[in-house]
């Protein structure tokens, strides 16, 4: 019925204990025992490849000592409870679908191009700072820009002249 740790069963082949494969292993499914985790181990990295019906590589996940890399048309991270997409990435865009995006670095977030959002806010009891250290800061909206200070002062400072201009109206 087999040899050593390898047994032939009605459902396929059963391999008990620690086994080493010197060449690629091609299988339809790999399962661990119900009471044990499945461990894949390598001295360099573990790579999982997905191929289409013509044998062409369509996706690859590599877990290495320094990084986890995924190469595919689209990468997604889903919530375990309801399966909604928390993070997705493809060549054209990255989408973050969590309720809140929190940036915890001391320097904040740096964007190379424009940012579009309906709401930016600081953590409670923290100041919100929008800064462009070497260029201009531009806020535009076709229906108006509103700045309010409900419980404090509104201050505007500049090095040269301060201009407030209305193109229509007072």
Automatic annotation (TrEMBL):
Bilayer-crossing regions: none
The organism's taxonomic lineage, starting at the top: Eukaryota, Metazoa, Chordata, Craniata, Vertebrata
Subcellular localization: Cell membrane, Sarcolemma; Cytoplasm, Cytoskeleton
Keyword Chloroplast: no
Keywords of the record: Cell membrane, Cytoplasm, Cytoskeleton, Disulfide bond, Glycoprotein, Membrane, Signal-anchor, Transmembrane, Transmembrane helix
GO cellular component terms given for this protein: cytoskeleton; sarcoglycan complex; sarcolemma
Chief place of localization: membrane
Protein name: Sarcoglycan zeta
